Amino acid sequence: MKKLIVLFIVLSIFSCNQAKKSDYSKKSSQGITTKEVGIPPGKKLLETKCYVCHNHTTPHDERIAPPMIAIKAHYIHENTSEEEFTESFQNFVLNPTKQKAIMKGAIKRFGVMPYQKFEEEDLKKIANYLYNYKIEEPGWFKEHWKAKQGKNYINSGRKTSYIQSNKTLEEIGLEYAMETKKTLGKNLMGAIQKKGTLHALKFCNEKAYKLTDSMATKFNATIKRVTDNPRNLNNTANTEELNIIEGYKRIVHNNETINPITKQAGSKTQFYYPIITNSMCLQCHGTPNTQIKPETLKELTLLYPTDKAQGYDVNQVRGIWSITFKN
């Protein structure tokens, strides 16, 4: 299998394609308000769509893509306008090719980004945030850039940097979900890059639960991925979760804004957020013998005899994050 790349991509075991509207404060289909007043919409999109692979906290030897600051540094210069950057950003992400790439070192190390479906409006919001705000960067990057490029790069906020004093319950739950997604996605991508899709299936079967449990321990929370069409019966959604899944399916079908759902019970918060398919998911969750290759299908049958997690297309609700944590 050819080496997969990751450049301007957010790939994980389950990918989230969300936020189709620009309102900062919304109510979910369950009537729960998401408090995000004042938060640049591109910030949330950057974290949910890009940081699985492009996270600044990933150790150097574990990276499967350059951090987002490297992308910003290569594309934004002193005289680069926001319109120019946005156009370049969208042009590559919507149709990535080796010829278009300006980050030759990243191409050499990680390969060329596989095609992914992105909403143009989402990319505009991400580009707006990258251009106008200071973003997080790894501690090693400044010295690395100076040694390689011999010049400064732009990461100062052209607008007042967004500073959040207190996280909402929705943001806490989303942080737990995205950090767990990042851990699973990083390890899954590593398995695919090293030995291909079949090896990744064994990884999911043997290690996904252990990694999820380790993140739950880290955050002192209960973290589950549940679905109405389970591959592993342990991921079967309960009645409440099934209702949440159906609600998110309606939202995605109607192209509405996707927001987290939180419900409080005493000293605990129950958090929900959808898991949505992208084209990479279809290698294991698409149509049998077309997107799912025969050898992969055979291995799925051996590992998961009661598998129901097939027949998906892109941008469909595969399941939800169901997370419980203390208020």
Unreliable spans: 1-37
Taken in chain order, the helices and strands follow as EEHHHHHHHHHEHEEHHE
Question: What order do the strands of the largest sheet run in, or round the barrel if closed?
Answer: 3-6-5-4
Tell how many strands the DSSP assignment holds: 6
Largest sheet: 4 strands, antiparallel
Radius of gyration: 20 Å
N-C termini distance: 45 Å
What topology emerges from the helices and strands here?
Blueprint: E1 26-27, E2 33-34, H1 41-49, H2 51-54, H3 68-75, H4 82-94, H5 104-110, H6 120-132, H7 141-149, H8 169-195, H9 197-219, E3 222-226, H10 239-253, E4 261-265, E5 268-276, H11 282-285, H12 294-303, E6 317-326
Antiparallel strand pairs: 1-2, 3-6, 4-5, 5-6
Helix pairs in contact: 1-6, 4-6, 8-9, 9-12
Describe the fold and architecture:
The protein is an alpha+beta fold and 327 residues long. The chain has helices at residues 41-49, 51-54, 68-75, 82-94, 104-110, 120-132, 141-149, 169-195, 197-219, 239-253, 282-285, 294-303; strands at 26-27, 33-34, 222-226, 261-265, 268-276, 317-326. A 4-stranded antiparallel β-sheet has the order 3-6-5-4, sandwiched between helices. Strand 1 (26-27) and strand 2 form a beta hairpin. The longest helix has 27 residues, at 169-195. Residues 1-37 have low confidence and may be disordered.
